[in-house]
Automatic annotation (TrEMBL):
<dbReference type="InterPro" id="IPR018389">
    <property type="entry name" value="DctP_fam"/>
</dbReference>
<dbReference type="InterPro" id="IPR004682">
    <property type="entry name" value="TRAP_DctP"/>
</dbReference>
<keyword id="KW-0732">Signal</keyword>
<dbReference type="Pfam" id="PF03480">
    <property type="entry name" value="DctP"/>
</dbReference>
<keyword id="KW-0675">Receptor</keyword>
<protein>
    <submittedName>
        <fullName>Tripartite ATP-independent transporter DctP family solute receptor</fullName>
    </submittedName>
</protein>
<dbReference type="InterPro" id="IPR038404">
    <property type="entry name" value="TRAP_DctP_sf"/>
</dbReference>
């Protein structure tokens, strides 16, 4: 029997209809770190079991990590023990850039990947990563759940990178935090060295807002804040708290400039290597598990705020968001009008915003 340890070349897979709405992945058994999945004894009736690896940059408490655990359990159930998933958090399998390459070559099966990193693989993903694009979580999920709208984009990496984008999920709303002062207007951001994700659009955004962009890996931010290499960063409250940035940056300002989704990437080779029935069983789990990851993010935000406040963090919501939005509006228009695909997606986003306004 062929196992996932014996990775076969990419081949044309049976036709699949569309791309599932959303996803994530999970846990079980400690196996070789060098392969996307290895066979182990077990499975019902003593049969062969394959355990997929999922890389997550966040901690074990994060909703995506926990949704991944649930996916592993559910996948084992629906495949009668033939498949499961093991989650590796805290960048233990490498930085996002490193793991993307591992997913591409099939040595890691799954990863949760920030939208800015996926943008580096196909610039059209920038549509979901631009500042002040989504008005609400509900609008964002309505767009991400549109299979017809996303099919071309989500399958665009299969031929060139052997990566399938299974879904996108809500990953919070990003704001500015730093060790110097509250950020209420663009003038307050002037001269501050702010970590941004490693993408051209994020660097350009921060420049237009008046800060000094410092793109770097997420795992390097704490020490950079602690030593003064960085003045601050921009992220959501759970990342701010779980990565202990609230220990070294006491000012969190609600600029709410970004609502970037995270995406679940899967090695196309690994997906193709599954038999048709088990592959479909995996895909059928994706909407349910992904919805859980998005929904669980909401209470996780509140817990993170409480934790940070106990450490003395000052949260300020008296931010002139319209002033920030005005500065980056030309950038948004430029990126969105670059081609027909982006224009169509932007039209869908505007409609979703009208139907799902901010609370």
């Amino acid at each position: 029997m062929k196992t996932q340890c014996e990775m076969r070349p990419l081949q044309e897979r049976p036709s699949r209809t569309g791309v599932p709405k959303l996803v994530t992945a999970a846990t079980i058994g400690l196996l070789s770190l060098g392969l996307a999945a290895c066979g182990s004894g077990g499975g019902e009736g003593g049969g062969h079991k394959t355990v997929f690896k999922l890389a997550v940059s966040q901690t074990e408490e994060h909703p995506q990590y926990q949704a991944g655990i649930e996916l592993g359990k559910r996948l084992e159930e629906v495949t009668d023990g033939r498949y499961s998933v093991q989650v590796f958090g805290n960048e233990t399998l490498g930085t996002s850039t490193e793991v993307i390459q591992n997913v591409s070559d099939g040595t890691v099966a799954f990863m949760w990947c920030g939208g800015a990193n996926v943008e580096s693989l196909n610039e059209d993903f920038v549509v979901y990563n631009l500042p002040f694009v989504f008005d609400s979580m509900e609008a964002q999920l309505a767009v991400l759940n549109d299979e017809e709208l996303n099919h071309e984009l989500f399958t665009s990496l299969e031929e060139s990178k052997s990566i399938t984008v299974l879904s996108g999920v809500h990953a919070g709303q990003r704001s500015m935090y730093n060790s110097k002062r509250p950020i209420r207007t663009p003038a307050d951001l002037q001269g501050l060295k702010i970590r941004v994700q490693q993408s051209d659009s994020q660097v350009r955004m921060l420049e237009m807002l008046g800060g000094v962009p410092s793109p770097m890996s997420f795992g390097e931010v704490y020490s950079a804040l602690q030593t003064g290499v960085l003045d601050g960063a921009e992220n959501n409250e759970p990342s701010f708290d779980s990565m202990k940035h609230d220990e070294v940056a006491k000012y969190y300002s609600y600029t709410r400039h970004l609502m970037i989704p995270d995406f679940l990437l899967m090695s196309t080779t690994v997906l193709d290597d599954m038999n048709e029935a088990d592959r479909q069983a995996l895909l059928d789990l994706i909407p349910e598990i992904s919805a859980k990851a998005s929904a669980d993010f909401v209470p996780y935000v509140e817990e993170s705020i409480e934790n940070a406040e106990e450490l003395g963090v000052q949260f300020n919501d008296d931010v002139d968001t319209e002033a920030f939005k005005e500065l980056v509006a030309p950038m948004v228009d430029e990126y969105m009008s670059a081609n027909a695909l982006r224009t169509d997606m932007y039209t869908a986003i505007k409609q979703a915003n009208e139907e799902n306004p901010a609370a």
